[in-house]
Amino acid sequence: MYHRHFRLSGPPFQFTPAPDALYLSRTHREALAALEWGLLHEPTGFTMLAGESGVGKTTMVCSILARRHWNVRTALLSNPRLNFDQMMQVVMSQLASGWSGQTRLELTEGFAELLDNLAPGERVAIVIDEAQELSDDALEGLRLLSNADTFEDRRLHIIFVGQSELIERLGHPEMRSLNQRIGARTLLKPLGSAEVREYIDCRLRAKGGKASRIFAPAALSYLVEHSGGIPRRVNVLSHNSMLQGYAAGSRKVSLAMVRNAVSEYEDLLNSKKPRAADGAVRAMIPRARLTRAALAVTALALAAASAAFIWSQAWLTVNPSHADLLGGAAIRHAAGSYMTGPGIPPRPVASAVDSPSLNVALEPSRVRPQAPR
Q1: CA torsion sign, 118 to 123 to 129 to 133?
Q2: Of 33, 31, 38, 48, which Cα lies nearest the Cα of 156?
Q3: CA of residue 122 relative to chain centroid, distance
Q4: Across the chain, how many H-helices and E-strands are there?
Q5: What CA dihedral angle connects 187, 70, 83 and 162, to 10 degrees?
């Protein structure tokens, strides 16, 4: 492993919560305090912790659960895609060993009995990670579940942990009743530049290293600048940069190595986004097909009009007597019906008749009709 190359006792930038390298920025301390208050004291029965992906929400949850408060019995739900009954089965399996109930009635009665049997001062906490993925039915079921807690001192507490979309969902009118019950709320924000440096150094010190010994000053500055203050991204960029240093046999991570790590990371992210040019090409395909179809219809109409015109020319040339009977207006009407197909505007066709043998004009005749003798 590369950590031995840098004389470290273990990999410093793990992608799972690391209790031995817990870094608490100001916003992380506030989040941890809000979670602990919710577990122990919040009277409303609901707490919410929100923040964008990778900012450290799960790390905060694992940290608070690791404290194992003597008077709190905790159930952790990490799969929000379960329906309400399945969620309650998971909760009861964690809180009541040997539980075998299946139906909603059995689950509801079993949970109410669990609350009744709590010792004075004890509480039950249900922590739901990735709560923005909960269905509306599951959210409503949890709201109704809180109604089972009829004690003067709240014995049931539900903690929602999710991304920023959770705040938007709870703001919808249909979620008003649940949203009004949430007391303690906190938003976990990204780290500042100085905090990112402290975070990297904290991770390395936990494994016997130091940021200034492993990263060149310019390399560390570039990494901090492109991390966005997101701890998970810091872990990825730091890990990949040190891997490049290990592959090159260098004892120190250079600016070029960090640039390569950042470039690879950002290229991977951009490759997952639909490119605007591709979208424009896809949007042009239906228009191109429609244009080709319109041109085909126009060509067919022109062909039909040409055939009709040639046929009418031949018919009128062979039968001059019929032309006198039909008159110019009738021929204009017939020709117009052929020449006004889809996409073809009406056009004068008077000049098309060149045969002097026909005393027929497609324009209005200027010869005054004579009265019958």
Answers
A1: positive
A2: 38
A3: 40
A4: 15, 5
A5: 10
Backbone angles phi, psi at 181, to 5 degrees: -90, -15
pLDDT value, residue 349: 39
Query: pLDDT tens, 168-192?
Result: 999 999 999 999 999 889 999 999 9
Positive/negative CA dihedral, 138, 140, 141, 147: positive
Burial of 49 (0-12, 13-18, 19+ CB in 10 A): buried
CA distances for 110 relative to 26, 91, 117, 328, 362, angstroms: 41, 11, 11, 95, 94
Report pLDDT for 209.
94
How far apart, in Å, are the Cα atoms of 24 and each of 55, 314, 348?
12, 95, 84
Residue 293 to residues 132, 245, 287, 288, 298, Cα–Cα distance (Å): 46, 59, 10, 9, 9
Evaluate whether 163 touches 131 at the Cβ level (below 8 Å): no
pLDDT at 340: 39
pLDDT value, residue 149: 80
| C-alpha–C-alpha distance, residues 203 and 211, integer Å | 9
pTM score, two decimals? Answer: 0.69
Q: Where are the beta strands (DSSP E) in the chain?
A: 46-50, 72-77, 123-128, 156-162, 184-187
Going from the C-alpha of 111 to that of each of 46, 65, 108, 134, 149, the distances in angstroms are 17, 21, 5, 20, 10
Does residue 229 contact residue 201 with C-beta atoms inside 8 Å? no
What separation in angstroms does the CA of 27 have from each of 48, 123, 193, 368? 14, 26, 14, 98
Task: Fill in the DSSP letter of residue 175.
Answer: G
CA distance 74 to 222: 42
Res 39: pLDDT: 87
Question: Which residue numbers in the chain have pLDDT < 50?
Answer: 276-300, 302-373
With beta carbons less than 8 A apart as the criterion, state whether 222 and 266 touch.
Answer: no
| Domains, the chain | 2-10+193-271 (1.10.8.60), 26-187 (3.40.50.300), 299-352 (no CATH)
Cα separation of 34 and 94, whole Å?
24
Backbone angles phi, psi at 41, to 5 degrees: -135, -25
d(CA 344, CA 295): 11
From CA 194, how far away is CA 104, in angstroms rounded? 51
